[in-house]
Amino acid sequence: MSQYFDLTRRGFLKSSAAAGALVFGTYLAGGAPRVLAGVLAKPSESAKNANLFVALRPDGIVEITCHRSEMGQQIRTAIAQIVADEMEAAWDKVVVIQGKGDAKYGDQNTDGSRSIRYNMQRLREMGASVRHLMCQAAAERWGVSVDSCIAEQHIVTHSSGKTLSYAELVNDALNLTPPEVTSITLKKRSDWRYINTAMEHIDLKDIVMGKATFAADVLEPKALIAVVVRPPVVGGKAKSFDARAAKAVDGVMDVVEIPAPQGAPQFQPKGGIAIIANNTWAAIKGRRALSVTWDDGKNADYNSENFKANLLATVASPQSSVRKIGEAEKVLANASDKLVADYYAPHLAQAPMEPPCATAMYYKDRVDVWAATQNPQADMATVGAMVGMDKEKINVHVTMLGGGFGRKSKPDFSAEAAFLSMKTGKPIRVQWTREDDIQHSFYHAVSAQHIEASLDENGAIEAYLHRTAFSPIASTFIEGATAPLGFELRLGFTDNPIDTPNIKLESGEAPAKTRIGWMRSVSNIFHAFAIQSFIAEAAHKAGRDQKDYLLETIGPDRILDVTEQNADYDNYGADKATYPLDIGRLRHTIEKVADMSGWGRKLPKGRGLGIAAHRSFLTYVATVVEVEVSDNGDLKIIKSWASIDAGTVVNTDTVINQVQGGSIYGITAAISEGITFDKGRVQQSNFHDYRVPRMSDAPLEVEVEIIPSDAPPAGVGEPATPVYAPALCNAIFAACGKRIRQLPIGNQLKT
Amino acid sequence: MITFSVNGKTHEFSGDPTTPVLWYLRDELQLTGPKFGCGMAQCGACTVHINGVAQRSCVLPVSAISGSKITTIEGLSEDGEHPVQQAWIEHKVPQCGYCQCGQMMQAASLLASNPAPTDEEIVQGMSGNICRCGTYPRIHKAIKSASKTMAAVQYFDPKSEGEQV
To answer: Whole-angstrom distance between the N-terminal and C-terminal Cα of chain A?
Structure first.
């Protein structure tokens, strides 16, 4: 089923010839006779006339291009489901081809949980236009009206009962003009065959057989292996190095210095020294033998304990207003009884199971790259800048990704490979080790938050003040930036759903002393942690049930438009009429998950339930976690439940799997020691000291319900993560009375 | 010269004896099923069978496998029909898939030594294998399924019925 790479023109013609087929409507041939389904919602200029996403071969095989990166969210399957459904293609005739990096596809940055949101409509239109064209070709052949023909499962049937297969109609269709988008009728939802089903994903069998091609599994070209020793402090560089011992290692071919980056980090390599060898082990041994003296630069003073104190000091005093209604400060100043809480969360590393890896071959007029990248167009730009070539000359083949979680949107590793190939004239694969991955990531921001609220006589929040400060992602793109970019605040902070007449949200500044980047659900993680923990704390103070109080605190069903509260809010770039912040939908997920989990049931001593709900990436998720805390403070997660309203969904099993996985990913924030720095250096190095959830840390059951919805599709990959740490910590409080405000949990339950 | 077999085929190795088996399998034999995840036996992505028992190939030097029989995911079954692989398909376990070869090799070894593990024994047996996609609940269920399948296969073992096989 899965044919991995977007083939070169030559390779494609060769393989098609081998199959005894001619190519029709190919997206490869310049000046192809006709194009099929050249419909794009947001096309680039060349995209308007190109058959980008679907080609029908004379043998009846449908080639569907997936232009988004596959990292476990089964986007290759989902894109095929959408196109094939509208096209009325038989599933066993569908082949998925992975698209290379190319601006003609439009956006390829596979993050922000937006592949389906951005593409569903245009993919449906493309599939439907093929279906229409097949009917039209058959109608002309038969001399009947198009309306008397129906296309189903690769066959067009006339009302008289006669039939023609898609394969038989390919040549006729070559001479037809594809229909205008406006004349295409999309299928009714009730007629969907593939969309909104739990179809098996197309790469499943390859994965189970060990045949899936990840970045390090690319065997052609046969590359030399490079491992790189990078400056341990961001902004540092090698003062001197001695490569004699490294070069003496059998198999080591070369030692090459990579220049230090200039200006803001962006996605540039960190610089350092590469050991190039004819096998991986020799490269690793060579690196161990290399001795380097570093000039650490201005971040050598980065110490996480000091930085934490500074962040907490920042949020202790007034900061820039982000959203305001009423007179929160005044009400709070006069309140006799306030709830005040500070929350803290450390840096985290994404730590995908496959460490970053890329192979590159430099030629005079182009560079070929094979990379586990979430954003191949960023590889084109970054590699191009690194080797001094136009980005259009960088061919980026996207392999399967062994997890991404945001790390692989930053293609510093591809630029390393390309630079080293340019210097050596040989194909080079840069293999990051786990130590490299843990110590040289673009880290999830370290953060501190301060919240205070006063409760009225009924226990309801009458005034709410919330300050946030964290090292901003802005610093990765703007040298020395200390204030977050707007989007960082809009991820769970600006769009706080608390319904109160007096609200004041403030944002402080913080420097970045390392490279900061997004990690699955980004700043939603710490913002939801603080807000959802605080609401549970307020519930306890008011003597109320967590779930009932949460529902009352977010208020009645309504559309919340925070821009009416002096806030800048871009709603994940989506139109607010199509994707409103709908409190009713958020409430519904809470009520649903409460039902699922048997909320309110009597629990044995040491057990507790916690709940949290949050909208992110335009999707609503509520989670309940059940824990057991033993007398000596051992924590066990018994089970968790989640309800998700993501609007229209394409593959129901994928959604369930993503919510299960996103939940367990969320455990990382609670149990991991996080990434800490001293003297500018990361203090963790591998999974023995950077703890990630194992089976023993995870619930054996994560029960998920998808709330049926006809709303437009929203995000799925990320929204289950932010709710998990607060639901877990609320459950811990219910179980043993210990409130966790600072992550990780560490040994706080032991004291 | 170190001699051993990989997936039933005899191989000889005369290179650096400290080379971890993982890199030998990947770089020399181009068997890319075993994955590199940590290089210090912390994550299990590199798990292979040495004489039928799951081991971390990333820290096991070639010098230690003289005379051993090595099995990788590529050799676990001809066409993915091992009950563990079938259970992985039935429960649609994988997300990104990177760790899953190691997970399946670990699970196959676990079931070979303990055909009917309890829930807790599965957790203990599998907690050395990390999955960042968080497929643990499905891995757990798949192992229970595979255990049942294997028990059923044993129960109907034709040999025990005295049939010629």
So the answer is: 55
